[in-house]
Design goal:
mainly beta; 18-stranded antiparallel β-barrel; 3 helices; about 50% strand; globular
C-alpha cells in the first residue's frame, strides 16, 4: 500500500488528502495556563502598566494598547464530530507594548483567552521582537508575522505559517497569520531593497481540529498517528530572500525560500498492513516573482512561484508532494465611492503528473493536473464609513466547490465594534478543497473593545 496524499491543501485552505485526528491542543506558541504561566502573564501586565505610567529615563516612547474581545461561532447545518454545536466560543484579552528609544524598537503582542469548548484558559505570544534601524539596513529578532506576495487569501510566495482553523471558525482575519521565530535583515543599497530571513524553529500551518470540523480522511481507521517536525539544526534552518524595487511604476519582487512544506504528508509504518501513520514535513524550495501597479483604471497584480519538492523531483515517491507551478492574476478597482471590487484567478499546475497517477493507490481520489480558483471580494462602506458590508468567495472551476463569506461590521464608537458573518461551504466532492467542509457551515459573532 502506498499513499500519495498530503494532509490538507494548498494554496491556502485544506484541499486534498487526510486531516489527522489530532488530540486536543494547539500548535505553535500556545501553552495551557498553569500557575507558572499565570504568574508570567501577571508579571507582563504589571510591567506594561509600570513602564507606561512611569517610563524610565532611557525609554523615549512607550505605549500600551490592546483590546477585549468576545468571539463565537455556531453550526448552522449539523453538529460537530464531537457532538458540540460551537466551533468557537471564547473571550480574549490582548496587550500590545510598543517601546522606542533611538535606533531600537521593542514590540510585544500577547493574548490571554478562555476557550469554553475545551474549557481551558490559554496564553499565546503572537508577536515579540526587537528592531534595530540604521541608515541603510535594519534588523528584527524574535517572533514576527511575515507577509510576502500579492494574493488576497491566496498564498504563493507567502510561505510563512498560517492558522486556517481561525479563519474557518470566524476569528478576525488578523488571526489567519501566525508568528515565526527568526531573524529578518533589511538592506537598502539604493538600486533595490532586500529582505533576508532565517527561521531556525519550524512552525507548521494549523489546520482545523477534527473534533470541531468535518473533513475528508481516506484512512479513518488508523487513529495511531504521530507528528515529526524538522529538528532544530543549522541544516534545517529555513532561509528566505526577497529583492524588490520599482520598475516603470510597478512594484516588482523576486522571492526565494528553502525550508519545508508547512502541511504534513504521511508515512505508514507498513506499506501493506499499516497500523500507524507518521506525519512529516517534506523539504521544499520555492522560487517566485510578483508585479503590481496601476492598470485599466485599477490595480493589476501578477504573481507566480515554482514549488520544488526537493525529495521527489521526479514525482515517483508516493509519500511526497509533486513539484508545482502556481500563478495568480488579480485586479482591484473602486467602482464608485466607498465600493471596491477585487477579482483573482489562481492556478496550480502539478508536474510529473503521469508519475503521480501511476503511484496513486487504488481507492484514493485523484487530484487534477491543474487546480483552479476564482475569488471575488466586494466591499461597501456606508454611514460615514462606520458600516462595512463585505463579501468574499472562492469558487473552483476545476473542482466545482466553493466557500462564501459574507460579513457585516459596524463601528459603534472609535473603540467599540462588532461583526456578524457566515462561512458556507459546498460543491465538489468529499475530498475537494471546500467540498470536504460541506458540513461545517457556521455563523459567527465578533465583538471588540479597543483601548
Amino acid at each position: 500500500m502506498t499513499i500519495k496524499h498530503e494532509i490538507s491543501p494548498v494554496p491556502s485552505f485544506p484541499k486534498r488528502g487526510i486531516i489527522p485526528p489530532f488530540v486536543k491542543g494547539r500548535l505553535g506558541g500556545i501553552l495551557q495556563i498553569n500557575a507558572v504561566i499565570a504568574l508570567r502573564l501577571l508579571a507582563v501586565i504589571i510591567a506594561c502598566f509600570f513602564f507606561t505610567i512611569y517610563p524610565p529615563a532611557y525609554a523615549a516612547e512607550i505605549s500600551l494598547h490592546g483590546f477585549l474581545q468576545g468571539n463565537y461561532s455556531t453550526d448552522t447545518s449539523t453538529s460537530n464530530p464531537d457532538g458540540g454545536d460551537f466551533k468557537l466560543a471564547e473571550e480574549r484579552l490582548q496587550l500590545k507594548l510598543d517601546a522606542t528609544k533611538d535606533s531600537f524598537h521593542l514590540f510585544l503582542k500577547t493574548d490571554a483567552y478562555y476557550d469554553h469548548i475545551d474549557e481551558e484558559p490559554e496564553l499565546e505570544l503572537r508577536e515579540g521582537y526587537l528592531d534595530f534601524t540604521a541608515s541603510k539596513w535594519d534588523l528584527r529578532v524574535g517572533r514576527q508575522v511575515i507577509t510576502w506576495g500579492l494574493g488576497d487569501l491566496v498564498f504563493i510566495n507567502d510561505v510563512f505559517p498560517k492558522d486556517y482553523e481561525a479563519f474557518f471558525a470566524g476569528r478576525p482575519l488578523e488571526y489567519l497569520k501566525k508568528g515565526a521565530d527568526g531573524v529578518k535583515v533589511g538592506m537598502y543599497p539604493g538600486f533595490a531593497s532586500f529582505e533576508l530571513i532565517a527561521i531556525p524553529f519550524f512552525e507548521p500551518n494549523h489546520f482545523p481540529d477534527s473534533k470541531r470540523f468535518w473533513m475528508f480522511d481516506p484512512m479513518p481507521g488508523l487513529t495511531d498517528r504521530e507528528r515529526e517536525k524538522p529538528s532544530v539544526t543549522l541544516e534545517n534552518t529555513e532561509v528566505a530572500i526577497r529583492a524588490y524595487r520599482d520598475i516603470a511604476g510597478f512594484d516588482a519582487s523576486l522571492y526565494f525560500y528553502r525550508g519545508f512544506f508547512r502541511q504534513p504528508s504521511v508515512m505508514p509504518d507498513n506499506p501493506l498492513t499499516p497500523s500507524k501513520l507518521t506525519l512529516f514535513y517534506p523539504k521544499l524550495s520555492e522560487y517566485g516573482a510578483s508585479l503590481q501597479g496601476r492598470a485599466l483604471d485599477g490595480v493589476l497584480s501578477l504573481e507566480a512561484g515554482y514549488y520544488d519538492s526537493r525529495r521527489d523531483r521526479k514525482g515517483t515517491d508516493p509519500m511526497m508532494p509533486n513539484s508545482q507551478t502556481r500563478f495568480l492574476i488579480g485586479y482591484q478597482r473602486q467602482i464608485w465611492e466607498d465600493f471596491t471590487l477585487g477579482l483573482q484567478y489562481y492556478g496550480e499546475y502539478m508536474h510529473d503528473y503521469a508519475a503521480y497517477k501511476s503511484s496513486l493507490p487504488a481507492g484514493f481520489p485523484q487530484e487534477r493536473r491543474l487546480h483552479e480558483l476564482v475569488t471575488v471580494r466586494l466591499t461597501q462602506f456606508l454611514l460615514h464609513q462606520t458600516l462595512r458590508l463585505s463579501w468574499f468567495s472562492f469558487w473552483s472551476p476545476s473542482d466545482g466547490d466553493y466557500l462564501m463569506n459574507p460579513e457585516v461590521k459596524y463601528n459603534f464608537t472609535d473603540h467599540i465594534w462588532a461583526a456578524v458573518g457566515a462561512m458556507s461551504f459546498g460543491g465538489g466532492n468529499q475530498a475537494s478543497q471546500f467540498g470536504q467542509l460541506d458540513r461545517n457551515d457556521n455563523v459567527y459573532l465578533q465583538v471588540r473593545y479597543e483601548f
